[in-house]
Each structure stands twice: as structure tokens, then as C-alpha cells.
Amino acid sequence: MDKRTITALGEELYQALRSQKTVPPLTERNSGITLADAYHISQHLVKCRLDRDGEKVVGKKIGVTSEAVQQMLGVYQPDFGFLTNTMEFPDGAEIPIAGHLIAPRAEGEIAFRLKHDLSGPGVTEADVLAATESIMPCFEIVDSRIRDWQIRIEDTVADNASCGVYTLGDTAVDPRGLDLPNLEMRIYKNGELEATGKGSAVQGNPLTAVAWLANTLGEYGIPFLAGETILSGSLAPLIPVVPGDEMHLELDHVGTASCRFT
């Protein structure tokens, strides 16, 4: 895909983000689009946010890691994207949908906070653990600028991995000594148990998922940096939310996270 087309599609997605409107799937209109093309489109989208809106990259995310989410979306490999400072809401926050989101869905995740830089290729689970300062419970609220969530892997990567916003729990725990694959999470919507999951839902181990992300971004010369937040993927199926919904999760041995939508 030529640079002019990449720039045009990145601009289209940026305008969709700012207007809260959707666009037809990129893969319907560009049959030859590759994953590398999609990554470069996302880079232009993110650059627009940084240059025009003054945002800053504060982390990275991996998505579509669990079988449940892959089945829901019809996307059968992980996506990856960037977090900016305006995406983060505090624990317990009221998150406005109007003016910010289009068709939000809540994911319960384990977030990693890094104390050392980490750069692929060749990153292992042990490397991730050594570079991690703490883990936190997290809600990622994914959203899509692609019409009706009709996405293929190239669509979601181009759309910055369907990033919306996220909220981190108010407890941060050293992961050493924890059995991350067997950590259990319970997710509640409006006080009712909605879903459960384990750390093993994300590529068998959240450390494996984060290592994959480090190595994948390393192919594009993008490192993890000390202080960044890394979202490791949803432990349970995505949960659609509308104004008035309240979400709460409990992650064994780590803590809780919550948010409300207005």
C-alpha cells in the first residue's frame, strides 16, 4: 500500500475518532491491505493524536488474545496498539459515552506497570517479569471506528487495536510469587455476576501475552519504556455497556476495579 493511501486512511480513522462516527471496514475497500499496512495506518492515527491534540503515549496494549474474544469478533490473532494519557480514567470514575465513544465494550484485564525498558525481539516471560514493577486490575473499554464492529485483524490494528479508554484499579501488587495463569477474575455488571475468567485466557499466561507484544512491536523498532502501562488482554468475553451501567471486577490476590458510564 502506498504512503498516500496509508496517510488518507489514517486521517479517515482520526476524523472518525474525533466525530464519533464509523467508517466502512478498510478490508472491504482495500483487498490487498497487509498487517504491516495496518500498523502504518495506526501510526498515522496516533501521530495525529499526538501532534494535533497534544496527547502522549503512556503505554501499549494487546487485544483479541482469548478464545472467547476471538470467537465474538471473528478475529483469530492478537492485535496491538498504543495507549495515550487521555485514555486513562481513575478507578471508580464516571466515563461519558456521548462525545467520547461509539459502541463501547468492557474487558476485564491484568495491567502491567514497567520499571525497566524492554525491547524485542527475543523477549521471554522471565524478561517481562524482571521488567515489571507491579500488576493491577483493569477495565479496558474497547471501541471501534469500524462500522458495526465488522473487523478483520487489519481493520482493528489500523484502528489502534480498537482502543477506547481504560481504568486501573487502585491497588498495585508485585507479581512475583503469584500464579498468574490461575488468577481468577469475576466481572459484575450492575451488581450481577456477568463473567469470570483466569489469567490463562490470554495466551496461556499474561506474561506470554506481554512478551508477544514486546516482540511484535520490536519488529517495528518500538520498545516498551520504563513507567509505561501494558494491557495484557481480556480474561473474559467483551461486555457491551450503555449510559447508566456500572462495572466492577475482582482479581484474586490483586484487587478490584470499577467504573460507571454516563
Write the layout of secondary structure elements.
Blueprint: H1 3-19, H2 26-29, H3 35-53, E1 57-63, H4 67-73, E2 79-84, E3 88-89, E4 94-95, E5 105-114, H5 125-131, E6 132-142, H6 153-158, E7 165-168, E8 184-189, E9 192-198, H7 206-218, E10 229-234, E11 239-240, E12 246-251, E13 255-261
Parallel strand pairs: 1-10, 3-7, 4-13
Antiparallel strand pairs: 1-2, 5-6, 5-10, 5-11, 6-7, 8-9, 8-12, 12-13
Helix pairs in contact: 1-3, 5-7
Note down, in words, how this protein is organized:
- The protein has 262 residues and is of the alpha+beta class.
- It has a single domain, classed as Fumarylacetoacetase-like, C-terminal domain (Fumarylacetoacetate hydrolase, domain 2), CATH 3.90.850.10.
- It contains 7 helices and 13 strands.
- Helix 5 (125-131) crosses helix 7 (206-218).
